């Protein structure tokens, strides 16, 4: 039991550190947004990232070994136009805020589950834990889907503002997939605990 409590305490520390990192990511995104909104056209340090031009010409001949042929090239741009700064700033927020906010909320509720006071079985396997797991599952599933949609819309709109012959820009796929899987897993664990609690109540009622 003592070893289990120590392991659970270490797990709580890890979750809290991840929560702090997620909070720092939110602050970093806010700082970058402020810089993007205030920078002038003369001194540009930040721009709208993740843009794909419709036509790109890159000379790679000097960087290839003999006999190597380029099958496909893809150029990703970070661009900025001071005349469209308000629109670009608003669109930039949509590319990072949903993802970081989803991660922050999920880690916050997970840290509530792993609190030192929740080491006991009666606290850990409870309706409170089921509720928190359902919240985690809901925010991961809905948040990841919303993040993909908003990222896609924001990058597509920014591409039409900054590039000629722009086309739809796909958002990131890997991170939302893992968030969907984790959210589904949280729902499954919550349902297992809920049914276990119901079975325990029935068993105690028959004794």
From TrEMBL:
The chain crosses the membrane at residues 12-38, 87-110, 139-161, 167-190. Keywords: Membrane, Transmembrane, Transmembrane helix. The keyword Membrane applies. This is DUF2975 domain-containing protein. It comes from the Bacteria.
């Amino acid at each position: 039991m003592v070893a289990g409590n120590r392991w659970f305490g270490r797990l709580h520390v890890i979750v809290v550190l991840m929560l702090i990192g997620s909070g720092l990511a939110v602050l970093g995104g806010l700082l970058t947004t402020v810089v993007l909104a205030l920078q002038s056209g003369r001194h540009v340090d930040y721009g709208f990232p993740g843009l794909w031009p419709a036509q790109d010409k890159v000379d790679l001949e000097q960087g290839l070994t003999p006999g190597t042929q380029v099958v496909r090239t893809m150029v990703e741009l970070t661009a900025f136009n001071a005349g469209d700064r308000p629109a670009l700033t608003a669109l930039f927020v949509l590319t990072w805020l949903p993802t970081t906010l989803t991660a922050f909320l999920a880690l916050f509720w997970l840290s509530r589950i792993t609190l030192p006071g929740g080491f006991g079985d009666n606290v850990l396997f409870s309706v409170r834990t089921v509720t928190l797991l359902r919240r985690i599952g809901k925010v991961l599933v809905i948040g990841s889907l919303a993040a993909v949609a908003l990222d896609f819309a924001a990058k597509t709109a920014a591409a039409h503002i900054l590039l000629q012959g722009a086309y739809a820009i796909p958002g990131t796929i890997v991170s939302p997939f893992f968030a969907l899987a984790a959210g589904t897993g949280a729902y499954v664990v919550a349902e297992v605990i809920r049914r276990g609690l119901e079975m325990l109540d029935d068993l105690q009622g028959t004794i």
